[in-house]
Amino acid sequence: MFFYKTLINWYLKNNRDLPWRKTQSPYEVWLSEIMLQQTRVAQGLPYFLKFTEAFPTVFDLANADESEVLKLWQGLGYYSRARNLHFTAKYVANELHGQFPNSYKELLKLKGIGDYTASAIASICFNEPAAVVDGNVYRVLSRFFGIDTPINSAEGIKEFKVLAQSIIQKDNPGRYNQAIMDFGALHCKPQNPLCNDCPLASKCVAFEKAKVSEFPVKIKKIKIKKRYFNYLVVISEDGKTLFSERTGKGIWQGLYQFPLLETSKNISVDELISNDEFTAVIPNDASISLFNKEEIVHKLSHQHLITKFWIIKVNSIEGSLVDWNDIEQFPTSVLISNFLKEYSKIE
């Protein structure tokens, strides 16, 4: 009870003023929670405001084209979230007549909604005592109770969920969930937590044993994979370029890109023009130059993309053509978007 009451008291004095906190609308809470997965509030907030302005209701989101959704999402990363968001919006609008399920178990059945998001919506919107467990919660609970079970193990996921559920009260569970998440984000931070001014310090195991920095415990990360990307930025004399939607189930599905040549290592211009995939697309009279003199390393969760942008001027070209002046209308990855911004400065 000390833990619960202390967090609530702290929250009432220190809670963040966020737009989705001012409503119990399942649509807006769902939207915010999906956006804040793997994303800091400061980064996610502008996107939430853009989305709610463009799509005020779940019906508006459902009726939008996927490319429009992906374009608004651009820069937020983890694009499968946006595709799942759009899929679920269509399901809720068309199959559930715009009404979100009102229980944790039913919410879990929606695409893109896992334990954390279902718990958040159920508790905040429907007052169901379903405890959220995210990175902030893992950190607070592991430090306070001194739990060294790895949070990214099957055993740890189960143990922390059971513990979190045992603490939550039936009285305003949504407020408690928001309290522990805010506490982890603002006070019990990953680096430089405010332990000397912490209302929980008197009973915090990690603080007592001077081991705060050792919690939470994680199993060693998987090895980072390196991939070598060569984008062929083809520009014809009449201002056309090759630009098409990325297909398949890998990263950036549904986003647009220049022709991509992936290699097993860094390659030179001679190696580029002798590649069969290159010669199948690019005419013999092409003029080729490397845009970025230093390789660009784009870091994703489990892979690093070592990237080169090759500027290829041609008289004419055939394929999926787009007018260069229209290219920014298409949804792209941050990697492509950043290139376009830099290239526009020298055109």
TrEMBL record:
Biological source species: Tenacibaculum skagerrakense
Entry-linked SMART domains: ENDO3c (SM00478), FES (SM00525)
Role of this protein: Adenine glycosylase active on G-A mispairs. MutY also corrects error-prone DNA synthesis past GO lesions which are due to the oxidatively damaged form of guanine: 7,8-dihydro-8-oxoguanine (8-oxo-dGTP).
UniProt entry tagged with the keyword Iron: yes
One Pfam family of this chain: HhH-GPD
Descriptive protein name: Adenine DNA glycosylase
Keywords: 4Fe-4S, DNA damage, DNA repair, Glycosidase, Hydrolase, Iron, Iron-sulfur, Metal-binding
Superkingdom as given in the UniProt entry: Bacteria
A single GO BP: base-excision repair
Family: Belongs to the Nth/MutY family.
EC identifiers of the protein: 3.2.2.31
Cofactor: [4Fe-4S] cluster
GO molecular function: 4 iron, 4 sulfur cluster binding; 8-oxo-7,8-dihydroguanine DNA N-glycosylase activity; adenine/guanine mispair binding; metal ion binding; oxidized purine DNA binding; purine-specific mismatch base pair DNA N-glycosylase activity
Domain (HhH-GPD) ranges: 35-186
Catalytic activity: Hydrolyzes free adenine bases from 7,8-dihydro-8-oxoguanine:adenine mismatched double-stranded DNA, leaving an apurinic site
PANTHER family found in the cross-reference section: ADENINE DNA GLYCOSYLASE (PTHR42944:SF1)
Textual note on the cofactor: Binds 1 [4Fe-4S] cluster.
InterPro entries, A to Z: A/G_AdeGlyc_MutY (IPR005760), DNA_glycosylase (IPR011257), Endonuclease3_FeS-loop_motif (IPR003651), Endouclease-III_FeS-bd_BS (IPR004035), HhH-GPD_domain (IPR003265), HhH_base_excis_C (IPR023170), HhH_motif (IPR000445), MIG/MutY (IPR044298)
